[in-house]
Design a protein that fits this description.
The structure holds two protein chains of two kinds. Helix content of chain A is 43%, strand content 14%. Chain A has six helices and five strands; from the N terminus they run E-H-E-H-E-H-E-H-E-H-H. In chain A, strand 3 (59-62), helix 3 (71-80) and strand 4 (89-93) form a beta-alpha-beta unit. Chain A is globular and about 40 Å long. In chain B, strand 4 (95-105) and strand 5 (113-120) form a beta hairpin. In chain B, the strands form five sheets. Chain B has a five-stranded antiparallel β-sheet, with helices on both faces. In chain B, strands 7-6-10-9-8 form a five-stranded antiparallel β-sheet, sandwiched between helices. In chain B, strands 12-11-15-14-13 form a five-stranded antiparallel β-sheet, with helices on both faces. In chain B, helix 14 (479-493) crosses helix 15. Helices cover 42% and strands 26% of the residues of chain B. Classes of the chains: A alpha/beta, B alpha+beta. The A-B interface holds A 13, 15-16, 18-19, 22, 64-65, 93-98, 115-120, 122 and B 408, 411-413, 415-420, 422-427, 448, 451-452, 454-456, 459, 462, 466.
Chain lengths: 146, 619
Amino acid sequence: MNFDAPILLVEDNPDDVVLTLRALAKNHIPNPIHTAGDGQQALEWLSERGTPDRPFPALMLLDLKMPVLDGLETLARIRARPATALLRVIMLTTSAEERDLVASYRRGVSSYIRKPVDFEKFVHAIGAVGLYWLATNQPPVQGAVA
Amino acid sequence: MNPVLEPLSTIDEIELQARLGTWEFIAGEERGRISHGLSRLLGVAPGTIPSLAEVLAWIVPADRERTAQELSQAFATGGAYRTEFRLRRPDTGIVITLQATGSVTTPADGRPRLRGVLQDISELRQREDLYRTLVGAMAEGAVVQDAQDRILETNHSVERILGLTANQLRGLDSFDPRWQAIREDGSPFQAGEHPSIVTLRTGKPCSDVIMGVCKPDGTRSWVSINSRPVGALPDGLPEQVVVTLSDITARFEAERRLQQHQALLEATISNVPMPIWSMGEDWIYRVENAAAITQFGDLRGMHFEEHAVPAALKDRWRDNNRRALAGEHVVDRQEWTEQGRIHCTVDLLAPVRIDGRIGSIVGIHLDLSEQAQARHDLAQANAGLEQRVAERTADLAAAYAELESFSYSVSHDLRAPLRAIDGFSQAVLEDHGALLPADGREMLQRVRSAAQRMGTLIDGLLRLSKVTRSELRSARIDISHLAREKLDALAALAPGRDVDVEIEAGITLTGDPDLWRVAVDNLLDNAWKYTSRKPRAQIRIHRAESDGRAGFTVADDGAGFDMRYAERLFSAFQRLHHPDQFSGHGIGLATVKRIVQRHRGTITAEASPERGARFTILL
């Protein structure tokens, strides 16, 4: 169980931020949630993590299309930095384009979720993500991540 | 001077000169009497009289028995006889040929006596043998024919030339139809024209008459015939005719081939539309064909230097001629532009060698101006075309890139607001639903379903555009298998439906696996959807074939449609049913059609309302 570490949500659309937070809440995911408006902000926030009282996020939900620094580039930089190379990063995006999928997996994304229009389906998808990545999946120990 | 010749004085002298011997046997006596001449012929001492048995023993074995029989027959019948035999002389061992003539007489004492003369004809026979051998060894055929033109004798070569044995030839005459005798020009020999007959009829020889005769194997021999008269009948005409035949078949056929070759060559040279000429080593034009005469004038017999042409061209031709006369095969191509037109000529010159020596040259002049002009025009057209293709390709690439980025932003940006509309409507329903009247909640539900439908529409459009843009792969696709998977999936989602599915096994085609899965899915989604109102429905997938093209059909017995609107069926957003009857966005069949078109195939639909629809795809 990994419900103490925060979840980092990187999303530029305020509507999507509200809806994602709502979906997480509806699934009773207890982790604290930090929101970043673009990739740049997310990287800055991450650079200050990695201490015992400020652990790395248990999960990162990353939008693909954002201003300043988009999802793919953000992912690449996270993977390039040893301290964050093993972070669990979920692409949460509108795009179902094959090239986006391929590019994401090439850069080492952990999962790729397409946001459905139907909110109930979205809630269901977020629930599955939380259950799998926070409860089912066995992550490396924090030391290894740091 | 006495003009009368004195006769030889004695019989002995006559016998010596004529190589004669005389003998007499009386029946019942062991030894007869023989003349001195005969003692000389037989090689026995004068006065010695050999017995009949001794004489028979000296006769060579081959002639012995026949001679003995002839003698005893002469005794028995008492007539005259004439025979010939060879005898080995007991003194020298030399074989001589003797001609024996004799007769049996019975005088008054009643004792028959046989008297005869032997003559040594060895020299005659030797000469005959010599000639026989000579004639036999000749490569020429030799034939002796009698006064009636019948063949009496032939040598070995005749058998070879005419293809018949001596026995088969004997008795035949020159008229015999089997010869099918013809002249060089192919006309037949008339009865009186055969050389043997001419000679027999006129007494005059014929020489070098050429005749073609048919052999039994169907091939024709060509012979050169000479005929000579032999002997003379009382009327002065020949007794016999000797005919010799030279086999000239090989020479004749070679000549004929040469003539044909010559004729072919002449016909070719005179009929080709390009000028051909020939020049001797003395630089005098010898041959020109019609085209050459038309183009250059009649130069035959003219020296090259007398031929009036522009100086530059003359130098060039002189050089070509010199090189060809030195043994080179010259190819001289000239291309120039005159008043905007391209001219191109090629002069081909070749040495003509006879016995390895160059005595003349032959030249061909080709005018390739038209071809050169056409090639030039084509090259220009191609260059223009390439330019246009490059421009169009650039335009197309730009449009393509625009479409690409448009689709991408549709995919991202158009859906985001829909998610907000649906999400927040749901949030209002959940958080504040209690505050809303029932119709207010229903309106929010309608907002949500409209947003979701638009989401589905966008997805469909994106798939359609992806079908158009994606690169085609090529693989063998099992349509039967794809259909089975899809219908199993549909059945699993609707356990209540009763659908009779029939899929012909082993329907395959070649194409892009992803696209064909989309096409099969869409067709079966439709079939499944439009049969949903039937308590028991049928869906059938079969192989299709037409005009050498192969594919498959998907048929159902569902709602169908009115064929009057069939052409709208394959356009995006065109629907033939109301959403309250069957849901849908009208993109599925448009997508299928794009997929089929990208595989250079066709799709056709047949249907009638409430009787089902049938879609046929042919590649």
